[in-house]
Amino acid sequence: MGPCMKCGTWCEAVMYELSACFEKLSFFPDTLPVADVGDYLWMEEFCSCDCRAAARPSVLAKHDIPVRYPGSGPVETCARCGAPVDMTAWHLAVYQIDMRIVSDVVLQPTNGTLLAVLCRRCCPAEAGAEVEPAVAAPKEAFTQDV
Ligand SMILES: [Zn+2]
Ligand SMILES: [Zn+2]
Fold it and tell me: Has residue 103 got a pLDDT over 50?
């Protein structure tokens, strides 16, 4: 589904992503929070865990994202400035996600780790936070797996 951004190998069956998207969580009793996913700010794709691990420090440095491994709310801490982030409002979420490529249009996440969240001051609202999400398909939020 694309060349590895580290070594150029074409990714066909699995893809290892680093991505930042706008997200908003809804909390319900007795179940995992449900995430609405909005626009992606950026996404980098790799052929293997090794390529991603090798590239991760420079990718995150390029986007100025310190890794903090936040939980899934309802309130977490901005990775840049330390301000509280209301996870139930639109905010930027930076994920490391393993994707299984099912078809040209279907990608199935198999594993995910939330690396950081950014508050609205650190990630301006005009970058998509106030608009209706382009993709409104709810998914279960990833649980932390460190
Ligand atoms: Zn690679
Ligand atoms: Zn901040």
Answer: yes
Residue 12 maps to a domain: yes
Q: What is the mean pLDDT of the chain?
A: 86
Within-domain flag for 23: yes
How many domains does the structure of the chain reveal? 1
Model pLDDT for residues 115-135, shown as the tens digit of each residue: 999 998 898 655 444 444 444
Range of the domain at 92: 2-140
CA of 2 to the centre of ligand 1 (A): 11
- Is 145 a member of any domain? no
| Residue 135 to residue 19: CA distance in whole angstroms | 15
Residue 131 CA to ligand 1 center (angstroms) comes to: 34
- Decide: pTM greater than 0.85: no
Closest ligand to residue 2's CA:
1
Ligand 2 center–CA 69 separation, angstroms: 15
What the block records as the tokens of 99 is 């994707």
Say how many Å lie between the CA of residue 83 and the centre of ligand 2.
Answer: 5
Ligand 1 centroid–CA 137 distance in Å is 29
Q: 């994920």: which residue's tokens?
A: 95
CA 1/CA 82 separation, integer angstroms: 36
